[in-house]
Amino acid sequence: MWLRSCQTSTVTLRGFRCPHSKPAAVTRCCSTVQGDVRVRFAPSPTGFLHLGGLRTALYNYIFAKKYAGSFILRLEDTDQSRLVPGAAASIEDMLEWAGIPPDESPRRGGPVGPYLQSQRLDLYSQTAQQLLKTGHAYYCFCSPQRLELLKKEALRNGETPKYDNRCRHLRAEQVEEKLAFRVPHVIRFRLESGIEPFQDLIFGWNRHEVAQVEGDPVVIKADGFPTYHLANIVDDHYMKISHVLRGSEWLISTSKHLLMYRALGWQPPTFGHLPLLINKDGSKLSKRQGDIFIHSFQSDGFLPEALLDITTNCGSGFNTNRMGRRIDELISEFNPSKITTHSALIDLEKLPEFNRIHLQQSIEDEQQCRLLIGELQEQIQQVYATELEDEEVLHEDYIRRVLHLRKGHIFSMKELLSPAYAYLWVRPSFSSQQVAALTAEAQHIASLVLKLIEERGEELAVDRLSKDLKTLVKQTKATKYSEVMKLLRLALSGLQVPEDVMLYLSEFIIIFSCNNPKTLGC
Q1: What's 266's DSSP letter?
Q2: H-type helices in 51-120, by residue range?
Q3: What keywords are annotated for this sequence in UniProt (predicted)?
Q4: How confident is residue 310, by pLDDT bands cut at 50, 70 and 90?
Q5: Secondary-structure class of domain 119-274 per CATH
Q6: Residue range 487-494: mean pLDDT, rounded
Q7: Is 281 helix (H, G, I), strand (E, B) or coil?
Q8: Mean pLDDT lowest for which of 40-54, 195-209, 317-331, 456-470?
Q9: What does pTM read for this prediction?
Q10: What is the pLDDT of residue 3?
Q11: What percentage of the chain's residues is helix, strand, coil (to nearest 5)?
Q12: Of 89, 298, 344, 505, which one is least surrounded by beta carbons within 10 A?
């Protein structure tokens, strides 16, 4: 099903050797994909979706769409004690918000469901029984107290804690007796030495002799729920997953999983382990940071396109690396052979700039702009509910004009709802003392400006208005151009903060293109 063309590249790996090359070198395999592509994103709803999880989901989504395949969301909820209420639904909500919805999922359903592991327990139990019958698994009756003593002893001796495989040597009659007396137990998989190397799409040839460094792993816990190691291979097999793209932290577990595939007589999928997404200072992204959860970015006004862009821009796997790419461009430029083994350093301080670029693109796209207008209409009414006097500010044409005049200058839509932009939606207030501090010719200037507006009508434009206002200043006695601009800004916005002259003019056009110039009655 899979045709592969390999190229050799040298990368440094700790603890892994390619069987066909010198130490610390691996042969990378770059695949030409054929056949039915099915990939999955399988988070645990023990927390909400964060940036690292979104990146893993994104690469799976892009891979699926690049090769006309299917993207599956599977929720691994077997650790019942750590489940977070609402997390399962939120994960799917955030994938849909980000524009990378699954083709099959707990919500959408699909041909190989259910897509919640807690609803697939019979399947795991049947598989565990199959392993028991073939001698690849065994019942373990060791108590938690004994396991804790083993751990403490190993640590005291400076060794890595591991199970000593004691119960794999129990006789059949001993096992039957303990089961008859309902002694609490788990089921462990019997690790074997001599693991065959496997070729990872990203890290090349790998092999990890798990039997030498680990004890036999638990596959069915005492509560009847499977561990990750069993559940993920059972689900990947029955859901017909062709490629497993997951974080590189799972690379050393893959040999263990391949032993299980071999024991069950199943064909394993192709594996590709994505390098970690880390902070710009080299530290690991942590849920404790708080601000890396996707719903936090959403509530802060960041666009999903900006998040997808920055998480791919800081990594690898694309023919080009530029800001401003949307999902269709990411898919067309995706090249799995260009994914490197180096960790991706993300600088979230650059996210506002990514958002500014994507916000400008959305404003320039008529369909996207209409969506932004609808969102802003709702938000304006929420923020300024008791202060709105003119319904004109909620009109689509007015808001569109605001967006087009501020595009490229604002970093998020939330800026337009801040006090600095309140004048766009509510009547500004200012005192006669503020006016007098600027000029004694306020009334005269107001009449000149009103006359100018009447003459120009719909021909108001920034370039021409700048010239007109300079001409207008010549009709005053002692007011400078800069003072006229400050007066206009105060009258239009109620603000006295120094800003760019062109911003004054933009505000002038925004306000007087749709509203009656009542506020110029200085």
Answers
A1: P
A2: 51-66, 87-97
A3: Aminoacyl-tRNA synthetase, ATP-binding, Ligase, Nucleotide-binding, Protein biosynthesis
A4: very high
A5: alpha beta
A6: 82
A7: coil
A8: 456-470
A9: 0.85
A10: 31
A11: 50, 15, 40
A12: 89
| pLDDT tens column, 64-119 | 999 999 999 999 998 888 999 999 999 999 999 999 999 999 999 999 999 999 99
Angle at 108 between CA 126 and CA 273, to 5 degrees: 65
Q: Give every CB contact of residue 425 below 8 A, 6+ residues apart in sequence.
A: 380, 384, 387, 388, 393
DSSP symbol at 83: P
DSSP-assigned letters across all residues of 7-64: EEE----SS---TTS-TT-EEEEEEE--S--EEEE---TTS--BHHHHHHHHHHHHHH
Catalytic residue IDs: 287
Report the SS3 class of residue 139. Answer: strand
The values of phi and psi at residue 205, to 5°, are: -70, 135
Give the whole-angstrom CA distance, residue 157 versus residue 260.
31
Q: In which element (H, E) is residue 219 found?
A: strand 218-220
> What DSSP letter does each residue of 243-264 carry, written as one string?
EEEEEGGGGGGHHHHHHHHHHH
Mapping DSSP to helix (H, G, I), strand (E, B) and coil, where does residue 149 land?
A: helix
What angle, rounded to 10 degrees, do the helices at 51-66 and 304-313 form? 90
Closest of 131, 160, 132 to residue 15, by C-alpha: 160
Mean pLDDT, range 277-290, rounded to an integer: 78
Rg (CA), the chain: 32
Tens of pLDDT, residue by residue over 65-78, are: 999 999 999 999 98
CA distances from 197 to 20, 206, 256, 511 (A): 10, 5, 11, 69
Question: How is residue 388 annotated by DSSP?
Answer: -
Q: Which CATH architecture has domain 294-356?
A: Orthogonal Bundle (1.10)
Q: Is the peptide bond before 304 cis (omega within 30 degrees of 0)?
A: no
Please give the Cα distance from 439 to 121 (Å, whole number): 80
Q: Within a 10 A sphere around the Cβ of 278, how many other Cβ atoms?
A: 16
For the purposes of burial, counting CB atoms within 10 Å of the CB of 195, is it exposed (0-12), middle (13-18) or buried (19 or more)?
buried
- Dihedral (Cα; 5, 60, 189, 122), 10-degree rounding: -130
Tokens of 159: 């060794």
Residue spans of the domains in the chain: they are: 119-274, 294-356, 365-424, 432-514
